[in-house]
């Protein structure tokens, strides 16, 4: 046997072994799922293709019919409005009398009568700004008009136009005049217009005493086709009863006979939908007819670009469904096999951890088989071991607590407070007042920070402790640092959180003034803002960079420093900010602004609490 033949036989054996489902439950499950999967995919795929195609055609038909009907109604509404305007001369007695008397008037009287006509035309044009021109003819065909496109050419004869005679023949009924180029204007680039005209009938004699004509810009129709123009692969036509093209996207043939007779319905048919084969492609043709206007609306939509993507979509759905089902198949097979092996692996892993002085129970195994019984017995044993360990561990903790209490008793805060007072008295006796002042300030600060009772103090008390603190710092920095407190006596009784202002001043000294070489000033202001107390602390120290400022503001929002290297000053401000928000709610807290080399301003917003009643109502 050659080497190639041996390799082929080896590959065949591997394939047969891989497909052998006799010895592995996982392979049996996969094979069964495939036998169910293939027909389950084929039948829905074919049904989906047929249903989707039919549904798409129905939706497209309904959509195009609705759009075409909407266009028809919009145009009808507009024509109705203009038609009412053409009826105005019939209801105006002054205009009728003017038209009747024109033939008898000359000179100044005729000029005045014509002025009345022009004034009436101005009024009518003011009612519709989208009208290009309005013309009134008397019974001798003299014309009076106003237009928005300039003057009418002097050689243009309205009387000789075919529609002029048709209007007179209709005896007062309106006539829709199809689209045409407005070549009667003095313009190098005439627009397309369509018109409405009717005879002006006398109420007294019931005879024609003149004629009114209104020219409308074709833009009126364009504006009403916005929905249709957004549809790709769509053509739209408007054809009048004489077969003349009123409108199409290609405006080169407007006013001429409609050049696509294959799109016209048979006589007697005006509305409906058809699927036609045009140039080898399927097209949906929608027909609509406006009886009031006398126009036919034809919409032609190429179905191929719309239906062809569905085939790709169906194929993609089949592929995706197959992949999803194969994934589900793998998950099911893995779940079945894992349900038998995972409990044993978990138990083994947990038992191995006992060598690291950790005693964990096995979690997540609730089966009722032999493996579940084994796990429950193991967990009971671990529970007893953990109980013994906890007993010994708690005994050790109690011993450590006793040792810690003994150490703390040696540095009793009251002992330190009394000691500082003793040092202060000795300094006074030996006439060293500076030491006495500083010791008193330190003891006052210390006593203020350790005293028990309410967490709320008056603003006066908080400011007093700030004064004592600044006394210490002034002595420490050889009077280089000074505090200016702008007190408002009306606000000193307001209740504030203890140690809310002093940490801000401390932060200003250590991080703003200490690095600075010049005279350091801390300015404290207070003011009332509606129902809030605003306390501001400004220092003329070194300030901070924009990056550091933004990082600090970010920590206020997220409750933790964004940079693990943040110094204690930032943490101190964050501590005060979080304490205030915990006490008073989200509307209160700390705001900071700083400029490098200029200084830093910190503002505290606190609620305006003046007595115990306010604090109770605030829930404090």
Automatic annotation (TrEMBL):
Enzyme Commission number, as recorded: 2.7.13.3
Molecular function in Gene Ontology: ATP binding; phosphorelay sensor kinase activity
UniProt domain Histidine kinase: residue ranges: 501-610
All residue ranges annotated as the HAMP domain in the record: 338-390
InterPro entries documented for this protein: Bact_2-comp_sensor_kinase, dCache_1, HAMP_dom, HATPase_C_sf, HATPase_dom, His_kinase_dom, Sig_transdc_His_kin-like_C, Sig_transdc_His_kin_internal
GO CC annotations on file: plasma membrane
Domain of life from the UniProt record: Bacteria
Primary enzyme class: transferase
Keywords: ATP-binding, Cell membrane, Kinase, Membrane, Nucleotide-binding, Phosphoprotein, Transferase, Transmembrane, Transmembrane helix, Two-component regulatory system
Keyword Cell membrane: yes
Localization annotation: Cell membrane
Pfam families for the chain: dCache_1, HAMP, HATPase_c, His_kinase
PANTHER family to which the protein is assigned, alphabetical: SENSOR HISTIDINE KINASE YPDA, SENSOR PROTEIN KINASE HPTS
Protein name (record): histidine kinase
